[in-house]
Amino acid sequence: MSSSSYDIAVLGLGAMGSAAALELATAGLQVVGFDRHRPPHRFGSSHGRSRVIRQAYFEDPAYVPLALRAYELWNRLERDSGESLMRITGAVMIGPPASTVVTGTIAAAERHGLDHEVLEASELTRRFPAFRPADPETAAVFEAQGGTVVPETAIRAQLRLAARRGAELRFNQAIESWSAEPGGGVRLQTAEGEVRADRLVLTAGAWAPDLLGGIGPRITVTRQTVVWMAPSAGLALFLPDVFPVWVWEPASGPTFYGLPALEGFRGGVKVGIHTLGESCHPDSVDRELRESDEPAFHTFLSENIPALEGRVLEGEACLYSNTPDANFVLGHHPQHPQVLIAAGFS
Ligand SMILES: Cc1cc2nc3c(=O)[nH]c(=O)nc-3n(C[C@H](O)[C@H](O)[C@H](O)COP(=O)(O)OP(=O)(O)OC[C@H]3O[C@@H](n4cnc5c(N)ncnc54)[C@H](O)[C@@H]3O)c2cc1C
Asked: Which mean pLDDT values do the consecutive 10-residue runs of the chain (346 residues) have?
């Protein structure tokens, strides 16, 4: 009955699935990849024209080796694709001296011998005049290797190279269900028929909970808003040669992050809320910015980065997939070793 059989199927071709498909095709495997849309797109977790990348990972020093490897692979992808993907601007983690972003960044940097500088509030403002912490007790950690990656360009490059290396990529084709075969192998059901592969990589982002059976409910999806500000005072303080990427965990209220004005005078300055937003499902979430989303940004910016206050040029919602302890779900399916899960990137 089923006509085609592959070494490995990749379910979901966003940031993670496109990277997996490229690596697997490069390794010489017969790869088939599926996506319900045509990535890059704005329905999942990988849109918004920029991402923060950094090495001194405050969330847990255990992630530092992965981050260092990611830098190598971004550099390789730039060489192989001829695209410019990564820009090093420096990163600054800001908060009270006992905050997670400050203590966690120092711990990760010390454990792995990464260059970093601890700054007091006055020094932070001297280096980056846009930052004017309302709380004089604020501290900061500067990491010169932090910077930005362009997710849409990266996904496009990964898919293009994966296809060139023989991966068969099927867009606008949702996997309706999958099943593991007792002797190994998997069967995937699409509207157009069944496909068989020896193994499956499950990289379905915010849809992963629907596809993971009993593990699914442990991953919760939240609506996360970002805005692009047009600062009243102009963009000069926010251009990427003078302004870093940043994460700011204030003593109270949500944690924010932001990036320099990467699109120069055409675009605004991006700011996002990292604290978890409302729970949602990717098929019904409101992806537009609502008026009620805006006041939190204005309050934080007027208190701490007043030069960035101004008009909201545009905004949107994106999806986080969160695990109970905020660690990634990365490894073999507990019942089906032929299935690899890469989800819950929190
Ligand atoms: C606002 C925001 C800001 C962020 N900032 C940062 C940051 O600065 N730095 C950082 O490192 N990370 C950041 N992240 C997190 C990062 O973007 C995500 O971890 C990453 O994009 C997740 O990629 P993914 O491949 O898992 O998901 P996606 O890219 O969403 O890919 C999943 C894909 O699976 C497809 N799919 C789903 N179900 C099916 C199905 N049944 N059949 C076929 N296809 C299917 C979807 O169409 C989609 O294309 C941010 C996320 C958001 C939302």
From this structure: 79 98 98 98 98 98 98 98 98 98 98 98 98 97 98 98 98 98 95 96 98 92 98 94 98 97 89 98 98 98 97 97 97 96 96
Name residue 139's beta-bridge partners.
95, 120
Rg over alpha carbons for the chain, rounded to the nearest Å, is 21
- 10 Å CB burial of residue 193 (0-12, 13-18, 19+) is exposed
Q: Residues 343, 203: contact at Cβ < 8 Å?
A: yes
**Residues 189, 175 contacting (CB under 8 angstroms):** yes
Atom 29, ligand 1: residue with shortest CA distance: 14
The atom number, within ligand 1, closest to the CA of 272 reads 1
SS3 state of residue 35 = coil
pTM of this structure: 0.97
* Closest ligand 1 atom, residue 155 Cα: 29
Torsion of CA 272, 296, 301, 245, to 10 degrees: -10
Cα(36) to centroid(ligand 1), Å: 13
Tokens found for residue 247: 């994460």
